[in-house]
Amino acid sequence: MENGVPRVLRFDGEAVGPATDVLRCGGLVAVPTETVYGLAADATHGEGVAGIYAAKGRPSFNPLIAHVSDIAMAERYVTFDPLSRKLAETFWPGPLTLVLPLREDSGIHPLVTAGLSTLAVRMPRGDVGKIIRALGHPIAAPSANTSGKISATTAEAVRDDLGDRVDLILDGGPCSVGVESTIVKIDGDKAYLLRPGGIAAEEIEAVIGRKLIRLDQRAAIEAPGMLASHYAPDAAVRLNTTEVKLGEALLAFGPVRAKGVENAVAVLNLSERGDLREAAANLFSYMKQLDASGARTIAVEPIPETGLGEAINDRLRRAAAPREGA
Question: Which stretches make up the YrdC-like domain (predicted)?
Fold first, then answer.
């Protein structure tokens, strides 16, 4: 950080060294992943991990994901069951997080697990693995935004939100997936979907040969992204709208518009052709743009619950949920 302003570096090979140095000193680095930008700290460094919670204003009972460079690194910290290993071998690197039993004396700081006996682990795609490998152990990296607000999918969004609360921002351009990772927990012969995300549940079910069990929003928090109110803009969010009210902003989907679209102060279409992958990639950035329109409410057209639509609708429902103090 220089004069209270975070350094922003283009994320290339030359950025690995400076980023690793910041992490080793307990600092915070915003890193681009295929899902969203993460606010990273050394997962074994107590002051660094505490810095994540402070910077985000994140509740301490909400655990963090530990990002690893490969399965071998993960095995030093967690124990794999056969189904979880199969999922890791199939989908890593990629937007899948597995909740696994934490090994004793792992060295992972307790703040990462929020006191649980399990650890959420993921191997991200891309160059973030080079930083993790250089550091020599996992990084804790929740989304790089104020807790409960819209996740950042660009370096500019990180800077605008977190400002001087982050020491270094690595600019890798827009995130390709655009929603957080899918989180799965295997418990005996049962497989739980703790959070839908960048890999569709159907793909996971095809690999493990069984249906994923969904948990409702009242379930105990076992992984990140399970808070009822989350991913929220300042504006209220109204879902499955078929008619736009005067002064609302419209988050559209597909080629057919809701009635009264002329009443909207701003309109952005997640995907004109109704492509859920494109919609997921645009979700957070479009919500942020509509939030800046001045509208008090963002109306959202219906989005299918199939495939990545499950993750998109999960984020939208949490964005629309009642908020503390509201």
Answer: 13-199
Task: Establish if 219 belongs to a structural domain.
Answer: no
Q: Which domain holds residue 48?
A: 7-214
- CA pair distance 222, 113, nearest whole angstrom: 9
At 82 the pLDDT is 96
Is the distance from CB of 276 to CB of 307 less than 8 angstroms? Answer: yes
One domain, residues 113 and 201: yes
Alpha carbon distance 66, 320 (integer Å): 28
Q: Which residues of 255-292 are buried (b: 16+ CB within 10 A; e: fewer)?
A: eebbebeeebebbbbbbeeeebebbbbbbbbbbbebbe
**pLDDT tens track for 106-132:** 999 999 998 889 999 999 999 999 999
The low-confidence residues of the chain, meaning pLDDT below 50, are 218, 325-326
For CA atoms 154, 181, 49, 324, give the dihedral sign: positive
Cα dihedral across residues 115, 119, 125, 131: positive or negative: positive
Q: Which of 167, 183, 214 is the last residue of a domain?
A: 214
Q: Which DSSP category does 15 fall into?
A: G
Statement to judge: residues 76 and 177 lie in one domain: yes
Residue type, 159: R
Q: Which helix (H) or strand (E) holds 285?
A: helix 276-291
